[in-house]
Design brief:
homotetramer, alpha/beta, seven-stranded mixed sheet, six-stranded parallel sheet
């Protein structure tokens, strides 16, 4: 039974970790922090978590943390997470960091997209926590940088194409649509209910979203060369889920059957990726709601010679807390799927 | 390991049973029927159930059913369910019937509200499947009539008041608001997305909803005399959940502390009822989404001398499939909470 | 052409006034204030109002206001509005105040429910701006206190019953459900999109909502005696609309036909109240979306002897900006329906 | 005062025409048909249209139609519309056809994408009804083929780029997201409320949506050569609106200022196209809800050298009924904006 700590337990990813770990037979939340709700029980701070283990929330304190738990999920904003991760690593605790702070191996890249990095020394030990790309390294890691939600949905849909040399590495477009929880629990004017309901819009388009850096880093690795991605995020009037529609130009005349097979083979042993072939329906957000699954439908537009891939996840699960638990399972030597095998809540 | 059959597996309650039972350690779905999808695998018929056990759907056939399973959930419309239940009971299978066909002990009442009853002989053996009212009888039953969704939310909010003689049995009002899944999976003009989104309305008001018969039957039992209920159902633009706001006139000057205590004591040993006191927030549908929990907040309006009770469930879980599994657990001698203890999916 | 000023133009009621007045042939917005957006053009502050007259927002200044306009809509929070209204009235401008500050004739009542009142001297000249109750007085008024959204929907559904002595004045219950814009444009944790979508809950129940004071004041007038109302507001996951379900006990055996006729006659000359008889469908929020209409369906539950009334408005129109323009039309001697006769936007 | 007939008045586009024309000073609906509701008054068939002129719905009959009206909006499914249009044109009535039947000038193309065409003789007189492309021809036309909803949003976003030779004509991608009303009023399993709410998915991707034919026809005209479009439609959980995100490769190094200017100049005299520059917020569906406006934000991703255009309409207004009324205004010599100048309903 792994003793787990959650730093930042009252945001959406922290709450989702509580939900998932509550049903996990091999882990127990023993420590949880919240600046705002410090001193309150978790169920007082977050009403719907009545029924979860009764933990009193505290302000993060390294010594107390290390005393209480052995593995930590750090759910803090980028920039803030790095110090906490540093303190936990100094005490040799296992860390899955859900922020962006350790995702980019190159600190210059981090500083270009995010700002100053004060714990560069830890970067070499951080592993990008996407098991489908780095399972072996994750297994031996003590510091896992859990991927962003958009990158999870985009990378799983693009990697097989680039890895196999099926498509050109330039000109790839990822048009992604995300539920509102991806923007966090903090109320903001543009996330106020009446501004979102019945509405739909794009934001940070034309090269301005920070997740681009992380996607391109991983795509470079598999392509073995420079990759520039055109990425457009949109805000959906739903709570959960990301659906990415990906466009790429094949190097030779494409064949849908072959492209589907490429994905099917690449992911045949993956417990949390499912490929839908030409005779199967396109996936929607409801197909993955509450699950750690990524469903991918690769298609070919033979009129225009374009590969079109639909990739679909729950941003709070495979895009955050679920993938973090998957990483915990790997680090701690448990079966990778433990606690993550429920069916979607649909409708 | 109980071998379970689901008759009518591709409606919303059938699908929800598959979801819940998939995570149940003591039961396995071995048989499932669907007229429309007969011959197809469950995951072909219901895409999001890929990942559930691969069962081939068939048309209901009593001998095949009995061969394959020992306990059946019957998820058919009222009027249709009774024959199937009859055939299963003839073979002495255990049955949890989710229709209205065996909820009313008095066949005359059934025929007044629903239509002809062709299996009256089975009525004496049917137990109304609300464990909070009839746990002992359910434990020994072979035929459980699973309560309606509205009655579950209303009864749990009213019973302590009438049982204890706290309120007058006349003049009780239940104003209930339900998500759309309560109306089933069949597309209808009034349930077409654009007709429901951003909308809200009442229906079957002023004594016309059939669930009244079932609520009054159970309230008569606890009140020891006639009870007439004013019941108003409304359609909410949400997928899941029922919130009932209940109004009753106390027999003597009420005191909120006493009323809260009354509920707290009545339900103190109930695993699936949670009472929120005066200092706790009022419950909302999100607090119970995907769970078998009923959350109740009893309050007193001291200005008008009215008891106001908020009662909140997930209509597909405590209001249907979850309560059915709770009944299965009782019938088959398993721990009542088995497979039903997950936290809500919120947001 | 009336020259109109809007004090507080960038909240939801201010924005709605701009929308309605933009299509009004007899009024023109000449002055608009916003503390936050002072110095910006209206369309910069509120993107979707591009296309409206280009006004530069300013901080409220009495002399400038009076110079620019002759009639003012004051859309400020209660407590703040009274001073502004006072300054405008000192310059003898016509005022429609959308706050609660001048709705209660009795300052003691105001101070009990809201707080200190610093402009009591103006109360005698304020008219409660519900034309269906006070049309004549409004016509001659210079200060109209525009009704609250909940009171508008409840009063129109209750008044005919009490006026005619059809129901007892005690024991009336109003169970109201409101869209989120009723809570204003300020982002709050409980109004953050993911907290509301798919959710539904009650708030301020059991005698705690301030609008009770205003409803009871008007009901006392028509009943000619004390009236205490049990009022339960709920938050719907929709942008616009209030639907109130009202319960009352008739003094003698009720007859649905008579009750429908009572409403039909009471409102036969009202341009913005429509009564739906027994053979007509119950109204929903979509039937009034974007309009100044109140649709009422009176029914009788003959099983329990209860009168049940459904009353339905758009909270931003008949519940706020639309009724305010209706009042402006009356004050300024224009046809009451001018600028208010469009069909609902449905779906 | 133009006397107008609506053939197929009880679908979503027919209903929207009634709404718009009700506020149009130069047209009056004198004739309306509905097979299903024949013999009923319009307000009986479509409850929320109480308040519209009281017309009795009939089954379409050419002689009666011609007697009653002079200009017809035909809101029938493709394949059905052509015969009705033929009969109306034989009597020399003016027709705005909202189906696809007369949008494709080449009957072979029609038969490839849709099926048999039985009124090919009328094709030469039909004008594609997008005023921004064909204003002059529309002005003199008697038969206008009103554009599809997706084509309206995509063409307005692409035309300036191709017309000016700014982008390559191959490799253009249009990723479009539509509200549910675009799929019509007929209830279907995939449009049942619980299947859409909280969900999002793509459909008919990779070259399978019929609107491609219409988009490519118009793009060929402006490009002066072959254009193949990769088009991906998605279903949004909202009632109204289409937002298209368009990707194109510029022929030379692009400059956002120049691209914005290109659009601003192209549409400077267009009453229903608004261009948002680099310093203005990206548009969302709420900005156009209920209006005939198309808002376009052209941007350049300088990292990847891609032009990205956001184009946003209300599918029922600029994408259907509003554009049809705009065409009516042109045909009948009225000011083009008559009856179409209201602000959006937001929230």
């Amino acid at each position: 039974m792994i003793r787990v700590g959650i730093v930042g337990a009252t945001g959406y990813t922290g709450m989702e970790l509580v939900r998932i770990l509550d049903a996990h037979p091999g882990a127990r939340v023993c420590y949880a922090t919240s600046r705002r709700w410090s001193g309150k029980r978790l169920s007082e701070a977050v009403g719907h978590l009545a029924g979860a283990p009764e933990i009193v929330l505290s302000v993060f304190h390294p010594a107390e943390a290390i005393e209480a738990a052995e593995l930590f999920f750090v759910c803090l904003p980028h920039g803030e997470a790095m110090e906490t991760v540093g303190q936990l690593r100094e005490a040799d605790a296992m860390v899955v960091d859900l922020s962006a702070d350790f995702r980019l191996a190159d600190p210059a890249l981090y500083e270009m997209w995010y700002g100053e990095h004060t714990r560069k020394g830890l970067l070499p030990q951080a592993v990008y926590g996407m098991p489908e790309l780095h399972r072996e390294k994750i297994t031996g890691a003590r510091l896992v940088a859990n991927p962003g939600c958009y990158p999870t949905s985009v990378l799983l849909g693009v990697v097989p194409l680039l890895e196999s040399g099926t498509v050109h590495s330039e000109g790839i477009v990822a048009d992604s649509k995300s539920g509102v929880t991806g923007a966090g629990r903090e109320p903001k004017p543009n996330l106020h209910f009446p501004e979102v309901a019945g509405n739909f819009s794009a934001y940070n388009i034309a090269g301005h979203h920070r997740h681009i850096s992380e996607m391109e880093q991983e795509l470079r690795r598999v392509a073995g060369g420079e990759v520039k991605l055109t990425f457009t995020p949109h805000l959906l009037p739903v709570n959960r889920g990301i659906l990415s529609t990906i466009y790429a130009r094949p190097v030779s005349k494409p064949d849908e059957r072959k492209v589907v097979n490429l994905f099917a083979e690449r992911y045949q042993d993956e417990p949390f990726v499912r490929v839908r072939g030409s005779d199967q329906p396109l996936p929607g957000l409801a197909d993955v709601r509450g699950t750690n699954m990524c469903i991918i439908a690769p298609r070919v537009d033979s009129r225009t010679g374009t590969v079109v891939v639909i990739s679909c996840i729950d941003n709070l699960v495979k895009g955050a807390a679920g993938q973090a638990v998957q990483n915990m399972n790997l680090i701690t030597g448990q079966d990778e799927v433990t606690g993550l095998s429920h069916l979607p809540l649909h409708p």
